[in-house]
């Protein structure tokens, strides 16, 4: 590796170490009860190093938030020839359920409880859902060739994003009820198909590639 490559690898290693230690402490003590100083001590770095990598404390808990926010828009942009936005999003979600993807909500009982028990993280999660919906609206507008003043992409994104919110919450609900990921996937797969089917009459042909 080059010197630059080694430096970047070291930065990524440090970032992951801080994130892992923060998550461990959050799950053990609670998000609000854990301090940046405690995280820095656990990761054996300076407090300034923690805040340099993660400007907000919430970023330590949601270290994959960029992937989450971009996920629906990316699915629409990568839809197959002849495939509508609805079909692409349904296919992608069902595949995520099959592989029990954490981005879809399969985060495990400890992490799910950490979010549910923290008012701060619960609000942050709602904000991430909002950002994901905004990104989806932009992707739908581009896919449909919509005019800037056209409200349709935003309305479609609200509906499609709403289904994803409901399904994400359902996975969290079942996780906190004590079900394992395989059991949850077996339940949520058919429920997701049913939820997306409700949108077929209105959005079945929208933004078809």
TrEMBL record:
<feature type="domain" description="HTH tetR-type">
    <location>
        <begin position="12"/>
        <end position="72"/>
    </location>
</feature>
<keyword id="KW-0238">DNA-binding</keyword>
<keyword id="KW-0804">Transcription</keyword>
<dbReference type="InterPro" id="IPR001647">
    <property type="entry name" value="HTH_TetR"/>
</dbReference>
<dbReference type="InterPro" id="IPR050109">
    <property type="entry name" value="HTH-type_TetR-like_transc_reg"/>
</dbReference>
<protein>
    <submittedName>
        <fullName>TetR family transcriptional regulator</fullName>
    </submittedName>
</protein>
<feature type="DNA-binding region" description="H-T-H motif">
    <location>
        <begin position="35"/>
        <end position="54"/>
    </location>
</feature>
<dbReference type="Pfam" id="PF00440">
    <property type="entry name" value="TetR_N"/>
</dbReference>
<keyword id="KW-0805">Transcription regulation</keyword>
<dbReference type="InterPro" id="IPR009057">
    <property type="entry name" value="Homeodomain-like_sf"/>
</dbReference>
């Amino acid at each position: 590796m080059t010197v630059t490559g080694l430096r970047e690898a070291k930065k990524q290693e440090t970032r992951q170490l801080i994130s892992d230690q923060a998550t461990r402490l959050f799950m053990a003590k609670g998000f609000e009860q854990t301090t940046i100083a405690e995280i820095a001590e656990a990761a054996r770095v300076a407090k300034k190093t923690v805040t340099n990598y993660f400007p907000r404390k919430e970023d330590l808990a949601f270290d994959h938030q960029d992937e989450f926010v971009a996920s629906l828009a990316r699915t629409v942009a990568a839809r197959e020839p002849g495939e509508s936005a609805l079909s692409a999003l349904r296919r992608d979600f069902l595949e995520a359920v099959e592989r029990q993807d954490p981005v879809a909500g399969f985060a495990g009982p400890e992490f799910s409880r950490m979010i549910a028990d923290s008012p701060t993280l619960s609000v942050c999660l709602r904000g991430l859902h909002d950002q994901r919906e905004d990104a989806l609206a932009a992707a739908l507008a581009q896919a449909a060739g919509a005019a800037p003043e056209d409200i349709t992409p935003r309305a479609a994104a609200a509906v499609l994003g709403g289904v994803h919110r409901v399904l994400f919450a359902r996975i969290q609900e079942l996780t906190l009820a004590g079900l394992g990921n395989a059991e949850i996937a077996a339940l949520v797969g058919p429920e997701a198909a049913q939820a997306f089917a409700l949108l077929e009459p209105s959005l079945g042909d929208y933004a078809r590639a």
